[in-house]
Amino acid sequence: MSVGKRIYTNRENMNPTLVDRFREYPSANVSDCMERLYSMNAYIKPFGKQKRLLGQALTVKASIADNMLFHQALLMAQPGDVIVVEAGRDMNHSICGDIMYSIAKSKNIAGFVVDGCIRDVDYLQKEDFPVFAAGVTGRGPYKNGPGEVNVDISCGGQVVHPGDIILGDEDGIVVIPPQEAEGILAKVETLLNNENQSMEIIQSGNWEESALAKNIEKHLEENGYKFIHE
Asked: Is 98 annotated as a binding residue?
């Protein structure tokens, strides 16, 4: 097997209905329910008008300034996939632009996440296609390889496995292990119910008297804080 030139054509696919259940939830709340350990770094940001992204990861390990294997991933991608690219966080060359966005849209690919640069942002500001990346530059890529498809990669400070659920919005990207999806969904539903109750208390003007507020003071006192009224 030639390490650096591997293209895995098979990947575990989840029930699309299960994946789609994450669509209504903010990435921040999902991150909270995963102990805040699975969010990509803040430099991975959405570009263009569409800032919601959800799908299973088709991964690309690309050479710096090269998009040959990114193009191969486009050929392989199925509707609903998110192509996630480890591009070495190179800020000197873009590795995708409007042609690749158009191909992806025509195949109903869910979006791109690129640990590197993109270009043709004007297309993204007009069209309904989500792209998250580290930055923008007009300087284009080469097409020489090497690279790999559907291998474990690093993107935005997170390990991404082929088939991981990728959820993105204006707060960033969270990576969800498929085998944990059901349990995470249950936690998110509970968290959001609790937050809704908190919002009702706040809007009623009774926040200071709530159990949540009192628990803050209790926690501080238990950890040695003194309230000094002078």
From this structure: yes
CA distance 140 to 92: 9
Give residue 26's pLDDT.
97
* Nearest-angstrom CA–CA distance, 185 and 29: 10
Q: State yes or no: 176 annotated in a binding site.
A: no
119 annotated as ligand-binding: yes
What whole-number distance in Å separates Cα of residue 116 and Cα of residue 129? 18
Coil vs helix vs strand at 71: helix
CA-based nearest residue to 26, from 217, 169, 209, 221: 169
Rg of the chain over all Cα atoms, to the nearest angstrom: 21
Determine whether the annotation assigns residue 99 to a binding site: yes
Tell whether 97 is in a known binding site.
yes
Does 100 carry a binding-site annotation? Answer: yes
In tens, the pLDDT along 113-150 reads: 999 999 999 999 999 999 999 999 999 999 999 999 99
d(C-alpha 198, C-alpha 204), whole Å: 10
36, burial (CB in 10 Å: exposed 0-12, middle 13-18, buried 19+): exposed
**Strand-strand pairing, 147-149 and 53-62:** antiparallel
Residues belonging to the chain: 230
pLDDT tens digits along 61-114 = 999 999 999 999 999 999 999 999 999 999 999 999 999 999 999 999 999 999
pTM above 0.90, yes or no: yes
Q: Are 116 and 89 in contact (CB under 8 A)?
A: yes
